[in-house]
Design goal:
single chain; alpha/beta; Lysozyme-like; 5 strands; globular
Length: 267
């Protein structure tokens, strides 16, 4: 009888451990969040250029709100693998959300906190994208078709984020857009047009009647959209991947019509 009770107790313990395999990292999350909250509660410290005899705190302030959403593919082979990657301190990478192939959404970090997902990147004049964005990772090894469940979950999530944070339609972009020399995600299978039709990202209109001016500067147009044009080939490649779903770094006349139309929409 005692042996049976012991076996049941052991099974319960093992089951409990397996159901909470992220208990340790969840504890670390709470500890870090508590530390940040303690820092925020402190009044501004007296420093060398403060001459007032007493502190006067303003009543007019708020949380820093994200203004961009950056979409990624995980470039890994499973959701579990990505969750593990984002809970290992040595990887130094993270994201606010992870969307699995079955549509499950993991909210890994508060939207108001700074995730480490963008890396060295640039969009327009912004060079610290992590500080102003929400990162969403979609489980995909980089070559797969995104599942219907993933896209449905993504659209629902984007709708909530757009409403909650007032994010402009133009500010839903991809990792490859902000880091064209390093990244290709989300890959050419990603349905940017479908997202734009729902209000998440901009898209071009009917280009059949567009006449591109002779003095049209395609590099300037790429810059207007937001691309870093220091590496022109990489910028063109990112543009083609996003708006033409092609892996190419050659700009055709058809591409220039699209680029001309988009440059007017992004102004």
């Amino acid at each position: 009888m005692l042996n049976r009770i012991f076996r049941i107790f052991l099974i319960l313990i093992i089951g409990s451990c397996s159901a909470n395999k992220y208990a340790a990292t969840n504890k670390s999350y709470k500890k870090q969040a508590k530390s940040f909250a303690k820092t925020i509660r402190q009044s501004p410290l007296k420093d060398s250029f403060t001459t007032a005899s007493q502190w006067v705190g303003t009543t007019n302030f708020g949380m820093r709100k994200p203004n961009f959403v950056i979409l990624h593919h995980t470039a890994q082979n499973s959701c579990d693998q990505t969750l593990k990657t984002f809970t290992l301190p040595r990887t130094q990478v993270s994201s606010h959300y992870v969307i699995c192939k079955d549509g499950t959404i993991h909210h890994m970090l508060n939207d108001y906190l700074r995730a480490w997902h963008a890396g060295i990147s640039r969009w327009g004049n912004m060079t610290d994208i992590n500080s102003s964005s929400i990162g969403i990772e979609i489980d995909n090894n980089g070559f797969e078709i995104f599942t219907e469940q993933q896209i449905n979950s993504l659209l629902n999530l984007l709708g909530l984020l757009k409403k909650a944070h007032g994010i402009p339609a133009a500010n839903f972009i991809g990792h490859a857009d902000i880091a064209p020399t390093r990244k290709v995600d989300p890959n050419v299978n990603f349905p940017w047009k479908s997202l734009a039709e729902k209000g998440f990202g901009l898209w071009y209109g009917d280009t059949s009647k567009i006449t591109v001016p002779q003095n049209f500067n395609h590099l300037q147009a790429l810059r207007i959209i937001g691309y870093d044009i220091k590496d022109t080939s990489a910028a063109i490649g990112a543009f083609k991947r996003h708006f033409q779903t092609q892996e190419s770094k050659t700009l055709t006349d058809a591409d220039k019509k699209i680029l001309f139309d988009l440059s007017r929409r992004y102004q």
